[in-house]
Amino acid sequence: MSDEKGVYTYAYPRPAVTTDCVIFGYDIKDGLSVLLVERGLEPYKGCWAFPGGFLKMDETADACARRELEEETSLSLGEESNLLAQLGCFSGVDRDPRGRVITIAYYALVRKAEVRGGDDARAARWFPIQAVPQLAFDHELILRTALKRLKEDIHFKPVGFDLLPATFTMPQLQNLYESILEVHFDRRNFAGKMLKLGILEATGERPAGTPRSIPVSYRFKRDRYREMKAAGFKLEF
Amino acid sequence: MSDEKGVYTYAYPRPAVTTDCVIFGYDIKDGLSVLLVERGLEPYKGCWAFPGGFLKMDETADACARRELEEETSLSLGEESNLLAQLGCFSGVDRDPRGRVITIAYYALVRKAEVRGGDDARAARWFPIQAVPQLAFDHELILRTALKRLKEDIHFKPVGFDLLPATFTMPQLQNLYESILEVHFDRRNFAGKMLKLGILEATGERPAGTPRSIPVSYRFKRDRYREMKAAGFKLEF
DNA sequence: CGGATATGCGTAAAAAATACACAAAAAATT
DNA sequence: AATTTTTTGTGTATTTTTTACGCATATCCG
C-alpha cells in the first residue's frame, strides 16, 4: 500500500482531504431514509456521521467515496448507479477539531439493503429522514444541502430506478415522489404523466377477471430511459 | 501571514488543494466569453488557464477563489453576484505534473470589464467562447463542465442580472439567451414570456413620436426578482 | 354483510405554448 | 436621392398541455 504511515513534508501547509457519502434509501414503511455510521474513533466518537474518510494519493475523490462507503457500511455502489453525484466541497475553516480538513461530499440513491459497520465505523444504520440524530462535524449542513439537491434532481432524473425494487406499483411510485417533494398529486394525473414518458412497462397481464383495486405492477425500461436521457428529457411536477 | 514558506510534516501524505475560476462574460460583439490568464510560472508557463491558486489554511475555498481571481485578473466579485457557484472538485490523479493536486472549480457570470494580469499571471484576457486556445492542466474538461452547467442554470436563474449592462433592450436579452443555449426563439414569444415574469421594467417612456424600430430599454427589477426566487420560479424555454 | 377505501379509466374545462401577418422606422444598397 | 432590406413592436387564432373531477368496481375490515 502506498499510504503507509510515515513522514511527509511539504514547503507549504496543506489541508487534509476527505470524502463523505450521503446515501438515500427508500421503502414504503419508513419513507426516505439516510445511511449513517457510528464513529468508532475520536473526534465525535460514538456520534453518528456520514460514511467517509481520507483521500489516498492514488485514487480519485470518486473512488475514495466508493471505497470508504464499502469499508464502513459494506454497501458497494455498482457502476450502474445513476445518481452518484458530487454534492460539493465543504471547506469551513473550523469544521474539524483535528485541524484543517476539507471534504468532498457525494450523494447517491440506492435500494435499502442490509448494512453493517466496519473499519472505523462501530455500526451502520438507516435512519428515516424525520428521525436523524445529531450529527458529527458539519454533517447537518451537508444533509440539508443533499436534501435540497435531491428535490431538484428529481425533476430531471428518474430516481425510481435506484430507490424502488425491480417491480413496483403506481401508488408506490407516487408515494416516493410525494415523500421526497413533500407535496400531494392527483393520482390519475400522476399515473398519466408517468406512463406518457414511456419508461415504464406493465410487468404482467392483469388477471383475466379484471380485478380493479389491486394495483398493476410496473418495471422500468432501462433502454428506453437511456434513449430519453441522451435526447435530454424533463419531468414536470 | 500564516502561509510563510517552511516545512510542514504530516503522518500521511496530502494532496495540494487549489481553486480555479471559470468566469463568463458577455457582450453583443463577441457573445459569450470566458476569462483566462497566461501562466507566468511552470508548469504550463506561457499557456492559458483559468485564474486560480493554492488554498490557504485560514480561508474557505470560496474565499480562495475570490482572492485568486482578484490577484490574477484584478476582477473582484461583489457579494451581490448571483452566480458564484461551486462547479465541482476535479481530482484526477495525473492532472498536475507537480504531483497530486486537486482543484475546486467555481464559476461566475459577470459584466465584461477591463482585466489585467497580476501575481502569477503574466496576462489576463477575455476569449470568445468559440476562440478559446488550448488550456493548461485539465482545464478543457473544466470548461466543458462549466458550459454544461450554465445551460442548465439558465433555466432557473435570470442570468441577465449579471451578464448584461444595467439597461438593455429586448433583442439584446434574447441574443444572450440564444448564444448560451445555441438555439433560436421567435421574438414575439420570447418577449411575451420575459415580460410575463414581471422582473423587467421599461426604463424610459417611448418618445412621443412613437418610433417603432428603435428598441425599448429595460432594466431588471431586483426586488421583484428576489421575491420570485424565494417563492421558487422557473424559466421555461 | 355493509361501509369505507383504493384502483383504474376517461372527459371537459382551463391554461399555456406555438405559429404566424402586418405596419412603421431605421439601415443598407443602388 | 431613391429603393430595397432589415429591424422592431403589436396582436390573434390554433394547437397542445395541464388540471380538475366523476364513476364503476374490487378489496379491506369489522
Structure report:
- Chain A has 2 domains: 16-147, Nucleoside Triphosphate Pyrophosphohydrolase (Alpha-Beta Complex); 159-230, Winged helix-like DNA-binding domain superfamily/Winged helix DNA-binding domain (Arc Repressor Mutant, subunit A).
- The first copy, chain A, has 6 helices and 11 strands.
- Chain A has helices at residues 61-73, 139-153, 160-163, 170-181, 187-197, 222-231, and strands spanning 8-10, 16-27, 31-39, 48-49, 52-54, 85-90, 101-109, 121-128, 168-169, 200-202, 217-220.
- In chain A, strands 2, 3, 4, 5, 6, 7 and 8 form a 7-stranded mixed sheet that branches. In chain A, strands 9-11-10 form a 3-stranded antiparallel sheet.
- Chain A is elongated, with a radius of gyration of 20 Å.
- Chain A starts with 7 loop residues before the first strand and ends in a 6-residue tail after the last helix.
- The A-B interface holds A 3, 5-17, 54-55, 57-62, 86, 88-89, 91-93, 100, 102, 104 and B 2-3, 5-17, 54-55, 57-62, 86, 88-89, 91-93, 100, 102, 104.
- Strand 1 (8-10) of chain A pairs antiparallel with strand 1 of chain B.
